[in-house]
Design a protein that fits this description.
Elements: E1 2-6, H1 10-21, E2 25-29, H2 33-40, H3 51-60, E3 64-67, H4 70-75, E4 79-82, H5 97-109, E5 114-118, H6 126-137, E6 144-148, H7 158-163, E7 168-172, H8 175-184, H9 186-190, E8 195-198, H10 200-231, H11 235-243, H12 264-277, H13 283-296, H14 298-307, E9 314-318, H15 334-343, E10 347-351, H16 356-363, E11 368-369, H17 373-377, E12 382-385, H18 397-403, E13 408-411, H19 418-424, E14 427-429
Parallel strand pairs: 1-2, 1-4, 2-3, 4-5, 5-6, 7-8, 9-10, 9-12, 10-11, 12-13, 13-14
Antiparallel strand pairs: 6-7
Helix pairs in contact: 1-3, 5-6, 10-12, 10-13, 12-13
Bound molecules: uridine-5'-diphosphate-xylopyranose.
Length: 437
C-alpha cells in the first residue's frame, strides 16, 4: 500500500511516520523546502517524544519518503491523507484556505482512482465540499472518494496515541473506500481498537464535540477551584471525589492556568461559529472561552495577593509551553500572563526545558531567559509555575529559597503541597487550595 501524506506538521508527520512503521510506503509532502530538506536527514523540526527515532528508523527502512512534489507523492498512492492546518480566522471560524488549495492541486494531478482522507480538523460539511471541489475541477475522469478520519493525538504523547488509539473514526459514503481505510488500520483492528464507521458529518462532529467537551470539563474544574478558594475546600480532593464516579471519570479534572494548545481554543471557537451559522448556538461553549480567558489572569491576581503591587518586582516563570513534553507555545497561558506581568511593570525571568526558542519568536527579548530553574529564580521576588514539567516537580526548594529575594511561590498546576511549603517558610498559593500567606 502506497500512501501520500500532505502536510508535515504534528498530525502529518506523526501519522506518516506511524503508518510507515505499520509497514506501508509513505511519502510525506510539504511546500516548505527547508523543512523537507531537514526531514530527509531525519531531523524533526519540533520536540515530540519518540518521533525523531521513528522517522529515522523508517527512512532507513525505505518506507518513509519526503518531497516537496505533490504530483510525485500522489502518482503512486492509492490513499492521500490531508493533514494541513486549519487555523482560526479572526471571527473564530476555521480558515480552510490550505484545504482548498490542496483540493484544487489534487484536482489537477489525479488521473486514477484515489481515496482522499481528511485528518485535519475541519468544520462539519467540509469533506463533502472537498469532494465537490475536486469533482468540479478535476482534469481526468478518475473517480475520487472522500473519507473523514479525524485524529485525537495529544502533543507530547502523539506517537503513543497513534499506535494505541482509544478509537478510530471513519466517516464516508463509499463502502469500498471505507474498506481500504480499515485495511490501513488493520494493525489496530487486530489489537481490538474500537472502530466507528459513520457518515462524513458525524465523523467531523465527533472530533469537535470531543475537544469541546474536554475543554468544558477543564473549565468546569477551574471554576470549582476558584470557588474552593473562597469557601475553604480543597479542589484536589474534590476532583478525586468526583472522578471516582465512573460517569465523570478522573481525567481532565486538574485545574490550571487555563487550557491552551493548537486544538482546544481553536476547535471550541470553530464549533461556536458553526453553531451560529446553523442557527443552533452553543451558549455553554461561549462561556467556556470567556471563563478560560479569565482563568489565565488568575496567576496575576495570585501574585498580587502575595506580593502586592507588581511594579518593579522580578518574577521567575517556570514553564512556557501550554503543557509538558512539547515545545509548542500556541495559545499557551504564558503568552497571556507574561505580557500582563510586563504591562504591570514587573521584570520577568523565564525557563522552559523545550519551549524557549518558540516563545522567543513571539515575545522576543522582553523577557530574560534562563538556562535552568535555579538560574531563573535567582534574585526574584516570586516564582510562578505555569507548566507541570517533571523537572519542576522535585525542585530543591531550600536552595530556591536561598536564591530568591523573597520566598513566594504561585503554583498554577498544584504540583506542591501547601503544608510542605509552609514548613519551608514560603508564601504559597496553589489553585483551589489553602493559601499560605
Ligand atoms: C488535545 C486533545 O487531547 C487531543 O485528543 C486532540 O486531538 C488535540 O487536542 P493537546 O492539545 O495535545 O490534545 O493537549 P491536552 O493534553 O488535551 O491538553 C490541552 C490543554 O488542557 C493543556 O493546556 C493542558 O494543560 C490543559 N489541561 C488538561 C488542564 O488544564 N487540565 C487537565 O486536567 C487536562
Amino acid at each position: 500500500m502506497h500512501i501520500a501524506v500532505i502536510g508535515t506538521g504534528y498530525v502529518g508527520l506523526v501519522s506518516g511516520a506511524c503508518l510507515a512503521d505499520f509497514g506501508m510506503k509513505v511519502t510525506c509532502v510539504d511546500i516548505n523546502e527547508e523543512k523537507i530538506k531537514k526531514l530527509k536527514k531525519g531531523e524533526v523540526p519540533f520536540y515530540e517524544p519518540g518521533l525523531e527515532e521513528l522517522v529515522k528508523k523508517n527512512l532507513k527502512a525505505e518506507r518513509l519518503f519526503f518531497t516537496t512534489r505533490l504530483d510525485e507523492a500522489v502518482k503512486n498512492s492509492l490513499v492521500i491523507f490531508i493533514c494541513v492546518g486549519t487555523p482560526s480566522k479572526p471571527d473564530g471560524s476555521a480558515d480552510l484556505s490550505q484545504i482548498k488549495s490542496v483540493a484544487l492541486s489534487l484536482a489537477e494531478i489525479i488521473d486514477d482512482y484515489k481515496v482522499i482522507v481528511t485528518k485535519s480538523t475541519v468544520p462539519v460539511g467540509t469533506n463533502r465540499w472537498i469532494k465537490s471541489l475536486i469533482d468540479a475541477n478535476k482534469k481526468s475522469n478518475a473517480p475520487v472518494d472522500v473519507i473523514s478520519n479525524p485524529e485525537f493525538l495529544r502533543e507530547g504523547a502523539a506517537v503513543e496515541d497513534f499506535m494505541h488509539p482509544d478509537r478510530v473514526i471513519i466517516g464516508g459514503e463509499s463502502s469500498y473506500a471505507i474498506a481500504i481505510i480499515k485495511d490501513i488500520y488493520r494493525p489496530l483492528y487486530l489489537a481490538e481498537t474500537p472502530f466507528i464507521i459513520t457518515n462524513l458529518e458525524t465523523a467531523e462532529l465527533i472530533k469537535y464535540a470531543s475537544n469541546a467537551f474536554l475543554a468544558t470539563k477543564i473549565t468546569f474544574i477551574n471554576e470549582i477551584a476558584n470557588f474552593c478558594e473562597k469557601v475553604g475546600a480543597d479542589v484536589t480532593v474534590v476532583s478525586k471525589g468526583m472522578g471516582l464516579d465512573p460517569r465523570i471519570g478522573p481525567k481532565f479534572l486538574n485545574p490550571g492556568p487555563g487550557f491552551g494548545g493548537s486544538c482546544f481554543p481553536k476547535d471550541v471557537r470553530a464549533l461556536i461559529h458553526q453553531g451560529k451559522t446553523s442557527n443552533s448556538p452553543f451558549k455553554l461553549l461561549e462561556a467556556v472561552i470567556e471563563v478560560n480567558e479569565k482563568q489565565k489572569l488568575r496567576a496575576i491576581e495570585k501574585l498580587r495577593e502575595l506580593c502586592g503591587d507588581l511594579k518593579g518586582k522580578t518574577i521567575a516563570v517556570l514553564g512556557l509551553s501550554f503543557k509538558p513534553n512539547t515545545s509548542d507555545v500556541r495559545e499557551s497561558p504564558a503568552l497571556t500572563i507574561i505580557p500582563e506581568l510586563l504591562k504591570a511593570g514587573a521584570k520577568v525571568k523565564a525557563y522552559d526545558p523545550a519551549a524557549i526558542e518558540e516563545f522567543k519568536k513571539i515575545v522576543k527579548d522582553k523577557v530574560i531567559y534562563a538556562s535552568s530553574p535555579l538560574e531563573c529564580v535567582r534574585d526574584t521576588d516570586a516564582l510562578l509555575i505555569l507548566t507541570e514539567w517533571n523537572e519542576f516537580r522535585f525542585l530543591d526548594l531550600s536552595q530556591i529559597k536561598k536564591l530568591m529575594k523573597t520566598p513566594v511561590l504561585v503554583d498554577m498546576r498544584n504540583i506542591y503541597e501547601p503544608s510542605v511549603l509552609k514548613n519551608l517558610g514560603f508564601k504559597y498559593s496553589g489553585i483551589g487550595r489553602k493559601v499560605i500567606a
